[in-house]
Every structure is written in structure tokens, then in C-alpha cells.
Backbone:
């Protein structure tokens, strides 16, 4: 019983560190955020933070992983179960993407990550692995299942995945750029739904 309590405490502290880090990275940037600031924000000693992360870069990469993650589980049975729904699958995918796009903390981190991608090789590798490769993998598997079940036209599922996600990513980038200049991005809020409708009409049987 005592061991279980300790494990729960560690998990809780790690979550607090990540939450505080998102806020600080978003406000001060990567260089302007220190391990000391993060520990102070969480309310723990700097030495205690190192029980969970070896350095600031590891914290940053952990935060980036959550921002760049695929909206769906990587479990194949889960993908198959969702993909068989056809249009509902890409609607759900696009809506998850939309939520990330308009979430303030995620938006600020996304902007920071776009800057850091050109300066941090490990972050670039993680972006390609956790975001690009995984999203393309999940989507191409889903589109292949739809093709097998005669829901959409037969084609290269990987190319279809590229076509679908590229517009979502561009809308997300556009929203980030507009908000960076303090311009309203409200007119873009329906673009995700419009993209799904337009895309589905082009691939359905």
C-alpha cells in the first residue's frame, strides 16, 4: 500500500512539472525558461525535479511529444474499429486537430516548437517520428481499411494520408501566424469541417 502511494505521488509531480513547463515555455520561450523557474512554479526543489527529468531539454521534448501526438491510439484494433466508420473517422480526427489548434497553451507551444525545430536536431527527429511518421501511419492504415471495405476509392493510402493531413497542418499554421499578429482567426474555425466535407466528397465511392 505505501509503495502505491509513492508511485502515485511521483506521477502527479511529473504531470505538474509538464503543466508548469507548458505555461513557462509558452510565456518565456525555451531559452528564457530555466529548470529553477519550473521547479519554483511547481513548488518543489530544483534537485527534486531531476528525479523526473534529467534536464530542461528532456522536459521540452516531453511537452513537444504531447503537442505533436496523433489524435488516435496506435493500437491496430482501435484504428480498425474507428476506420470502419469512414467519414466519422476523419471528422473525429479533424476535430481533435481543431481542439489542439485553438487551445491557447497548445497554440503557444506550437509556435515555439516551430521556431525550435530549426535549432534542435533531437526535436526535429522527434517531430518526424512522433508527429509526421505516426500520423501518416495511423491515417494510411485507416484509409487502407476504408478501401478494403469499399468505403473510398482505391488509391495509395499513404498519399491519401498526406493529402488529408497537409491541409489540417496548414490551417493550424495559419491560425498560429494570425494570432501572433493579434489578428482574429475566428473565420478559420470552420475550415476544419469544410476540409473534411470537401475531402470526403473526393474520395468516397
Residues:
Amino acid at each position: 500500500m505505501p509503495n502505491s502511494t509513492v508511485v502515485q505521488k511521483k506521477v502527479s509531480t511529473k504531470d505538474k512539472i509538464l503543466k508548469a513547463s507548458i505555461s513557462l515555455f509558452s510565456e518565456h520561450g525555451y531559452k528564457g525558461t530555466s529548470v529553477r523557474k519550473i521547479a519554483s512554479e511547481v513548488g518543489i526543489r530544483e534537485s527534486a525535479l531531476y528525479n523526473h527529468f534529467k534536464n530542461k531539454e528532456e522536459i521540452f521534448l516531453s511537452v513537444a511529444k504531447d503537442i505533436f501526438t496523433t489524435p488516435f491510439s496506435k493500437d491496430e484494433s482501435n484504428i480498425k474499429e474507428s476506420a470502419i466508420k469512414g467519414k466519422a473517422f476523419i471528422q473525429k480526427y479533424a476535430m481533435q486537430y481543431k481542439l489542439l489548434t485553438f487551445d491557447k497553451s497548445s497554440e503557444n507551444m506550437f509556435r515555439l516548437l516551430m521556431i525550435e525545430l530549426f535549432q534542435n536536431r533531437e526535436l526535429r527527429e522527434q517531430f518526424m517520428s512522433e508527429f509526421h511518421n505516426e500520423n501518416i501511419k495511423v491515417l494510411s492504415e485507416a484509409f487502407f481499411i476504408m478501401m478494403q471495405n469499399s468505403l473510398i476509392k482505391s488509391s495509395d493510402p499513404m498519399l491519401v494520408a498526406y493529402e488529408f493531413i497537409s491541409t489540417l497542418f496548414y490551417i493550424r499554421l495559419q491560425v498560429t501566424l494570425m494570432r501572433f499578429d493579434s489578428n482574429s482567426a475566428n473565420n478559420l474555425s470552420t475550415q476544419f469541417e469544410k476540409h473534411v466535407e470537401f475531402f470526403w466528397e473526393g474520395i468516397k465511392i
Notes: The domain at 63-203 is CATH 1.10.357 (Tetracycline Repressor; domain 2). Residues 4-10 have pLDDT under 50 and may be disordered.
